[in-house]
């Protein structure tokens, strides 16, 4: 199951970004200065912040999408140092689960087959004299996108706004979208001012997706 936890951020993120904005225009009102700076697209003031999330129980398919976001820092559970033969878990897409009552167990049966292949390659590599690390790193080539992983990701508020714009959108893939909304929910609690209008691009203007638009934007509340 996906679990997203905001582990750390500055104690007063709205305050420090507001102070940065106020300093730029010699204002004594940080909150108002922050609102003006954001309205003017002077978004660098939002970079005086860092949000670190622990994300557990997500697929390697999600990981591939998440790490496309370059203005972020990542630490991901290693499939080289960790022997996956004892602790492999899998993410089953909800649409597969809902196909028929037996779909989830069929899917897990397939994962079990793959897991068997993983163990076979690992054993053969170890028997051929390779180290455990080498066996892990080559056997993992058969592991699927569904393999669950855990990671830490750190982004500043400017990057988070951009991330939410793309990944809270109905056009984003379901798993990363679910993760983005869980992150946004927690950001809004600790920095309500910064993330006041955060969310998919359609929260702040017209949908940028053109012909690909979902035509059914999520509600702000
Ligand atoms: C619905 C959807 C579908 C997608 N489909 C595909 C797909 O089919 N194939 C695919 O490969 N990817 C796909 N992606 C991924 C997408 O192309 C981006 O790689 C990903 O969303 C990261 O966005 P970004 O580069 O804006 O973000 P970040 O890497 O977080 O960068 C943030 C911003 O910083 C600036 N920036 C960062 N690096 C540079 C740089 N080197 N030069 C100039 N400016 C920079 C840009 O303004 C950028 O928007 C998809 C994404 C979405 C949301």
Please characterize this protein's 3D structure.
- The chain is built from eight helices and four strands; from the N terminus they run E-H-H-E-H-E-H-H-H-E-H-H.
- By secondary structure, it is α+β, with helices and mostly antiparallel strands.
- It folds into two domains: 139 residues, Gyrase A, domain 2 (2-Layer Sandwich), CATH 3.30.1360.170; 49 residues.
- Helix 1 crosses helix 2, helix 5 runs antiparallel to helix 6 and helix 7 runs antiparallel to helix 8.
- Bound molecules: flavin-adenine dinucleotide.
- Flavin-adenine dinucleotide binds next to helix 7.
Q: Report the order of strands and helices.
A: EHHEHEHHHEHH
> Looking at the structure, what is the overall shape?
elongated
Mean pLDDT: 95
Number of strands: 4
Largest sheet: 4 strands, antiparallel
| Largest sheet strand order | 1-2-4-3
Distance between the termini: 25 Å
How much of the sequence lies in strands comes to: 5-15%
CATH domain class name of the largest domain: Alpha Beta
Structural class: alpha+beta
Tally of individual helices = 8
Helix amount: 40-55%
- What count of structural domains? 2
Radius of gyration: 21 Å
Q: Say which molecules are bound, naming each kind only once.
A: flavin-adenine dinucleotide
CATH topology of the largest domain: Gyrase A, domain 2
């Amino acid at each position: 199951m996906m679990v997203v936890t905001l582990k750390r951020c500055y104690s007063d993120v709205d305050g420090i970004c507001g102070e940065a904005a106020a300093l730029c225009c010699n204002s004594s009102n940080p909150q108002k200065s922050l609102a003006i700076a954001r309205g003017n697209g002077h978004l660098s003031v939002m970079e005086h912040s860092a949000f670190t999330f622990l994300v557990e129980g997500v697929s390697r398919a999600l990981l591939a999408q998440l790490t496309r976001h370059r203005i972020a820092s990542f630490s991901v559970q290693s499939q080289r140092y960790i022997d996956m033969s004892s602790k492999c878990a899998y993410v089953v897409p909800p649409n597969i689960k809902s196909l028929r009552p037996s779909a989830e167990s069929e899917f897990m049966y397939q994962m079990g087959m793959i897991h068997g292949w993983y163990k076979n390659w690992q054993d053969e590599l170890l028997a051929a004299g390779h180290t455990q690390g080498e066996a892990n790193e080559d056997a993992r080539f058969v592991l699927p996108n569904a393999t669950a992983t855990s990671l830490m990701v750190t982004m500043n508020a400017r990057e988070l706004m951009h991330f939410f714009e793309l990944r809270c959108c109905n056009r984003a893939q379901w798993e990363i979208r679910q993760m983005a909304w869980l992150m946004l929910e927690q950001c809004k609690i600790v920095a309500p001012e910064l993330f006041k209008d955060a969310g998919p691009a359609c929260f702040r203007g017209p949908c940028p997706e053109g012909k690909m638009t979902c035509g059914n934007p999520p509600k702000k509340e």
